[in-house]
Amino acid sequence: GLEKFAVVGTHTGASLALQIALQAEPGRVTHAILSGIPLMRPETREQLHNSWAPETPPQEDGSHFAEVWARYAAQGGARPAFTTMLTTSLFSVWERYNWAYNAAFRYDPRPDLPKLTCPTLFLTSDTDLLLRADERALTLVPDSRLTVVEGSEHPLPWFVPERFAREIVSFVES
């Protein structure tokens, strides 16, 4: 296996990467790269938990497709191909799609962020809905920095994968 490794995650994946970094044996995780950590006020977390991914039964007229499409498209800037991928992925697990969202909204990373002991990069797009959360998280993690990619859609690995990879390699090798 890998003796030492870096963790990388975007949105829910950032929460998972944070937990891997904290639960790994000391010294194994060399760097954490987090994009869109869901650091929110409790009332925002509760509001999203209650509204973002409601249980919605399929409708005979197919209107549930349009509702999901509109929800993703409203995030702004996403290309139709990307919105199509998100929407069709969601429908492949329709009966359970909200489980992951609701679990993500229940998790509060605030008490865990200060426990990170490895260098941490918050790497995000200027269009990411969680950009402000990454900026707030920066103040909680001792050895951390923020890189904001200007003019890119979110998520970075989908829209600017080379730049995303270049930023990670540069951070890990510095």
How would you portray this structure in words?
- By secondary structure, this protein is an alpha/beta fold.
- 47% of the residues lie in helices and 14% in strands.
- It has eight helices and four strands; from the N terminus they run βαβααααβαβαα.
- The chain has helices spanning 12-23, 42-51, 63-73, 80-92, 97-106, 131-138, 156-159, 161-173; strands at residues 5-10, 29-35, 120-125, 144-149.
- The protein has a four-stranded parallel sheet with strand order 1-2-3-4, with helices on both faces.
- Helix 1 links the parallel strand 1 (5-10) and strand 2.
- Helix 2 (42-51) runs antiparallel to helix 5 (97-106) and helix 3 packs across helix 4.
- It is globular, with a radius of gyration of 17 Å.
- The two termini are 24 Å apart.
Number of helices: 8
Strand content: 5-15%
The poorly predicted ranges are: none
Cα distance, first to last residue? 24 Å
Secondary-structure element string: EHEHHHHEHEHH
Biggest pleated sheet: 4 strands, parallel
- SSE class: alpha/beta
Number of strands: 4
Radius of gyration: 17 Å
Average predicted local confidence, pLDDT: 91
* Shape estimate: globular
Strand order in the sheet with the most strands? 1-2-3-4
- What portion of residues is helical? 40-55%
Question: What labels would you give this structure?
Answer:
four-stranded parallel β-sheet; globular
